[in-house]
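User: Please fill in residues for this 176-position structure.
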């Protein structure tokens, strides 16, 4: 039997699925606030056969702004809400390191996606990447993943207002 490769939507978390804040403000944030269109968009991507992997920089942990425990509590609430909406996340990869740690996982470094490729059989040619930052763009480009940006601030990449809008765009391309 041929092994079945997964079509993955790699997703950034903060500023892509849920609201992001200035670093210091994260001390107070205990509940994820889902961005408009993110849950509906994930549902549609799921219908189109995508599985979800989240890759997120969480340097606030090693910067001492949030604790690992804070991160885990928050992640529990985040996953619970998605579960209630029938959205499963295959795995969340997070990098707790800051610049001083010189790790191999902090985006745009490739460690988290390299690890995902070891953990799962991934059809990289048909997988996509959705994120809001330049580091997301750079990482997607490194792996030749089609990149969809939420919002626009900076370089020359077309952007979308929500994951919902992106899911509609992908559907349109598929139907051509
Ligand atoms: Mg982000
Ligand atoms: Zn790291």
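Assistant: Residues filled in for all 176 positions:
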């Amino acid at each position: 039997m041929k092994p079945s490769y997964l079509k993955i939507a790699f997703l950034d978390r903060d500023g892509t699925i849920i609201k992001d804040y200035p670093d210091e403000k994260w001390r107070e944030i205990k509940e994820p606030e889902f961005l408009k269109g993110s849950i509906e968009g994930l549902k549609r991507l799921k219908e189109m056969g995508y599985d979800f992997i989240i890759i997120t920089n969480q340097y606030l942990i090693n910067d001492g702004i949030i604790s690992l425990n804070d991160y885990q509590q928050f992640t529990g609430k985040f996953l619970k809400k998605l579960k209630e909406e029938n959205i499963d996340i295959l795995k969340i990869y997070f990098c707790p390191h800051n610049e001083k740690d010189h790790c191999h996982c902090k985006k745009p470094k490739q460690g988290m996606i390299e690890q995902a490729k070891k953990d799962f059989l991934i059809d990289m040619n048909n997988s996509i990447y959705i994120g809001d930052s330049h580091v997301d763009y750079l990482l997607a480009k490194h792996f030749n993943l089609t990149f969809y940006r939420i919002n626009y601030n900076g370089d020359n990449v077309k952007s979308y207002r929500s994951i919902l809008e992106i899911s509609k765009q992908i559907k349109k391309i598929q139907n051509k």
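For context: Residues 12, 14-16, 20, 131-133 surround magnesium ion (ligand 1) (CB under 6 Å).
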